[in-house]
Amino acid sequence: MSRRRTLGTKKKIALLVSAATVAGGGAFVMASTSNAAPTPKSASESTVCLGLATALGNNQKFIADQRAAPDAQSEARIANREAVVAEIKRKQEASGCAVGESAQDSQTAQPSQSARSAQPPAASVQPSQPAASAPAGNGGGAAASGQQVCNGSTVTLSGEGGAPAASSNQFPAGTKLKVTNLDNNKSTTVEVTSVSGSCALLNNAAFEQVREPGKFLIRRALIEKVG
User: Fold this and answer.
1) CA pair distance 57, 100, nearest whole angstrom
2) pTM summary value
3) Bridge partners for 149 per DSSP
4) Residue 161 CB partners (closer than 8 Å, separation 6+)
């Protein structure tokens, strides 16, 4: 009887140790899971991430273009834009976005499924519309003052500091553009001061005047050449 009681006690101790081990392992797994870093969001999952990815892509394209066809000022421009790229990546990290993800041009940002389905088919375009009317709205520096330009373009920020200004691949320095965010009816009139990879790229100060809180991309923008 004594031997049976002793074995029973040993078995109980072994069972208690095993249970403690399993519980400890479970607690470790739970702690590891709770401490795991959240998965970064992609541009397709967040408007904020899409705006930052577009801004990054525009700046990277500008740097690539400057390196492909350099001039006397290219080195300084590239150094400036590389600093902007670093700042955008910091904003991506702070916003929980995939760091380094870029969209090469704001004009190629994919619209939502509902927006695509709402677009009429190509066959529905009115044949009576003059063929020259489409280029007139996107004619860049040739557009008349007060005319709407860059139809269908989205607008994002360059990440550059300083007084409100814009950069463009269609308008020369000194051109004045009025950019209106149709989602909140806020507008800003800025002067083009440098070249970029899109029709109108606003610096930080100009973008703040028309942005919606928490967003880095204006999907519905009206751009007018006013001077």
Assistant:
1) 9
2) 0.53
3) 223
4) 203, 204, 205
